[in-house]
Amino acid sequence: MAMTSEIIAPPAHPESGAAAVPDRARVIGGMPGPVSLRPARPPSEPGDPAKLAAALAQERHVTLELQRAILPLHEGPFDLPGLRAVVRYLPASRDSRVGGDWYITAEMPDGQVLLALGDVAGHGLAAAAGMARLRGALAGLAITGASPERLVGWLNDLVHHVAPEHTASVVAGYFDPASLVLTWAQAGHPPPVLVRDTWARPLCQPSGILLGAGREPYETASAALETGDLLLFYSDGLIERRDRPLEEGLGTLCRAAAGSADPEQVIDAVLGALGSTDPEDDTCLVALRVL
């Protein structure tokens, strides 16, 4: 099967004398500075429900179009070095505004695979713009070959510098197809789930608080994988509900995923077991089978 993943390559003509580590204050994922993408709204009388509903529908449409322009769409399985991947993105219900979930699956110049999934707090165009900043920044910063905890730390610097009023979560790392080792870090994000044979369990999580929530250092963890293993990355909209703790949703996820190494089957089983996703939050899942 042909590889359809993104391939991130360094610039053809780097600036002369540039520092080895990029200026993080300038790397903001193609969205320099606060950008207003909010569609113009005609004046309306306060409390007019019909006009308010029309304005929200217009904002939702613009936000979805922005997401589709930024996030690659994969209608079926696709191959990466040493991996077969399936991505499923489920927007929030029609009555809610779209959130800021995003992901990256990209081959790096050194042959490793950059894997990431994140979620910007909030909904609407502000969340979508934040998603674009973080996704673009991570894709560019990863070219340096920096360790996962340093990449996440730079993203934290970015959030503090550009949008200190917002927070975001992310899990990011590299998969080495030669050694089958995943090295990763996280910032306030639920851990990936490893499915092997008849069991499934979350990976042991390195410490890391939400992006924008503090200045504490981040840590890196490693997991030795085997051929036939399956990794599931997901946003918290999959397991989070107002009427149950996250641990309960994570346990349901693991029980549903156990016993299968087919990415599409695992995603279908998990969504079936957890019922409908959170109607107030979008959900993103990335399932990766080790080849």
Contiguous uncertain segments of 5+ residues: 9-39
Separate helix tally: 5
Full CATH superfamily name: PPM-type phosphatase domain
- The domain count comes to 1
Strands of the biggest beta sheet: in what spatial order?
A: 1-4-5-6-7-10
Shape: globular
CATH topology: Phosphatase 2c, domain 1
Give the gist of this structure.
The protein is an alpha+beta fold and 291 residues long.
Plain-language structure description:
It is a single chain. With 291 residues, this protein is α+β, with helices and mostly antiparallel strands. It has a single domain, classed as 4-Layer Sandwich (Phosphatase 2c, domain 1). It has 5 helices and 12 strands. It has helices at 49-70, 125-141, 148-162, 246-257, 263-274; strands at 6-7, 78-80, 83-90, 100-107, 113-120, 168-176, 181-187, 193-196, 199-202, 221-224, 230-234, 283-290. The strands form 2 sheets. A 6-stranded mixed sheet has the order 1-4-5-6-7-10. Helix 1 runs parallel beside helix 2 (125-141) and helix 2 packs across helix 3. The model is unreliable at 9-39 (pLDDT under 50).
List the helices and strands and how they pair.
Layout: E1 6-7, H1 49-70, E2 78-80, E3 83-90, E4 100-107, E5 113-120, H2 125-141, H3 148-162, E6 168-176, E7 181-187, E8 193-196, E9 199-202, E10 221-224, E11 230-234, H4 246-257, H5 263-274, E12 283-290
Parallel strand pairs: 1-4
Antiparallel strand pairs: 2-3, 3-12, 4-5, 5-6, 6-7, 7-10, 8-9, 8-11, 11-12
